[in-house]
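User: Predict the full complex structure for these chains.
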Amino acid sequence: MQGSSDVQRRTSLRTLAERGLSPLGLAALRVLLGLVLCAAMARFVLKGWVHDLIAAPGYHFHYWGFAWVPALPEPELLAVYGLAFACALGMVLGWRTRVCSAVFCLLFTYCELIDVSLYLNHYYLVSLLTGILALLPSGVTGSTWAVLGGKAELQPVVAYSYWILRLQMALVYFYAGVAKLEGDWLFRAEPLTTWLATFADFPVIGGVLAQRETAYVMSWAGAVFDLAVALLLGWRRTRPYAYCVLLGFHALIWLLFPVGIFSWVMVVAATIFFDPTWPARLPGLGKRLATLSFSTRSQTPQTRPGLFWLLVAHGVLQVLVPLRFCLYPGSVNWTNEGFRFAWRVMLVEKTGQVEFRVQTEQSRADDLDQRVYPQRELSRLQYAQMSIQPDLILEYAKSIKRRYESQGQKGVRVYADAWASLNGRPAARLIDPTIDLAAQPMTLLPKPWIIPFPTASL
Amino acid sequence: MSSRLLGLTCATVLLLGACAPSPLDDQRRELLQSWGSDLILPELSRLIDKSEQLGGSVSALCLEPSTMNLGQAREAWASARKPWERFFVFDFGPALDEPLRLGPQIDFWPVRTEAVDKALNSGSYATYELLGPEKGFGAIEYLLFGPASNELADVAPITASVKLDAGTSSRDAGASSLDAGSSGPEEQARCAYLARMTDALTADARRLRRAWDPKADGYLTQLTSAGIGSTEFDTLPMALGRIVNRMGFVVQHVRADKLATPFGTDVTDVELDKQESRFSQRAVLDILDNLEGVELTYFGAKTGAGLEDYLQLHGRSFATQMHDRLAAARRALERVGDPLDDAILHHREHVKSALDRLDELQRLIQVDILGALSLSLTFADNDGD
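Assistant: Here is the predicted structure of the two-chain assembly.
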């Protein structure tokens, strides 16, 4: 009896997941996200970042397993960004939206894979969202203009199209909240105390922002917000209030910190929690869109079992990946092991300094080691990121060894003098200076040569 | 629900669109202003004065060659080094960027003696605008202190047909009135070349001050209007970060380039010719002046504000650490002393100790102070989350 009940429950869950919903919410997400991404691509090019951040550096840090990804020359990179812009525009206009989403996802992810130092949580989220949108049925036949004109044909989409995107967004907020449940954030109000102190001269609210109490209130409120907002957005009664709070939250972040498109992506993506027919309730559009959706209500959505299970697998992966920091010893904010792809958003104020000492067979014990000053080769961004991330320090140490060996040097050993300061603490050694980093393996296993997080307080 | 959605849309527009940072005065802007008016412009004015005095001394030497006048010219050169080395924290913008790029024009080092000799021997210095390696502090030093410099004291006076007005320095650097290069004796040519270079130095110092002066080209305004119209600095933290980073860079530059390079490493030999100011044996004094510039930037000039003032206003202070580490670095450098050659060859442990103390000072600036100022967010030339 128990087995049959389980089967029934699974069947009813599957039925619920595959029931038909209006595609308008998905279409609105595509359009709004496409607009943000158009602006993001244009901004990246216009600010000269294609040159400064990707083309100009002579060295690139690679993701584990992706060292083969090449950095194209600048003209080709500009073409990549141009094509990504066109794809985002396609998403806006409703032209082959799935193809546009897929190509955008590939191009954007390629650009991110070129250099780890470019990693940003919201860029990762953009790759995920556009990747998911590429897989989901559009449900709309016709351009955005046709939809707005009431002339497009709509097909219901399966409910799990919304579920997977809601799960994705919920995980972003939830894990961002979980990451805040630690001592520095809750009991020292860091790094907000440090960050907000720089706003003492802000008009009207500057004095309040600079108060330590404000940092505490914002720290705790931020943690509660991150942990609860997805739930509150999911419940119809609290949704409008939760979205208002979300708007205020992201507006404040956008106003105070240089987070670029982060706030816009989140504000737009959170519309996925709305009722799927929400665009039909917009003033001026309501009647036409409502007619469209009403005319197709009787149709049943296309279901694709392969896609369903693919999205389930993606959901499971997204639940597990941010938790991998539990597999590593020490503080993740210090070691950075398990930090990326885990929605640890705006969590640390970390600065570092790193130089490398090189010894070879010819080295004399009683003299100065050869020093490598990475600032001379790396961009400011690359150096700043490497100086606080041990895996990047390791990768650079290995590149130094290769360089020396290519010059005929033998027995090359590379040591790092790496110091970092986390959330206002005095600088402390990050890497064991006696370890030859060039001899250490590049794996995802814990790195024993990272010096544990200093317990000394301010 | 539709009215709610309308409300939400309006709220989005209002909150995200209308809340862009507005032009504000704050303590960071005041600090930048203070650095400009109390450090940058006064140091550049001093540099102009001292380079004019150097020009006057060289004129006197050439008109009346003597050991005493050579000594005075040398002193004038050393005296002009001080404001320049103290200014080094601010050696960016017009000093580094094209088209001006005045830093290498004023101080190209290590001096390329072959370029100076070539310009001197060919007489070309008199006919075209000198390039960086052919002029500036390094080239002047080479002629005033280099192997053949004592001959300057013995050279026959330059005749009245050669006008020496380097001290007035109102003319353009490319139009020297000296033509001693064609007058015959090598020593006279050397003297004329010197005068030509001191003219150029004064002119370049003037151009640099003009480039910073808010009443002229106004690069200082780029700093102080950061975030409110500056085309160079989008935000105040970027402007502040540029200078704090420069403080750290100066210390690293001193360590890596001024000390460690000539010191040599475990596989490279001592490279004495990679020193700064090696002919005048002023390498360590140059470094001490660099550190004084860092100190003035941090603690403020007599009448001006410093970074410490800003930190204190925000409940942080590194005054004790900064004071201690600067003092330790100075003590170590004084043990090294000039001439640096001597320490590099015979007291290497003193140089190593100085390198270690400078490392500690650099770390304080680049890790602790930068972290306390929360400038790392703006260092990522990219959006950060």
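The two ends of chain A are 62 Å apart (CA to CA).
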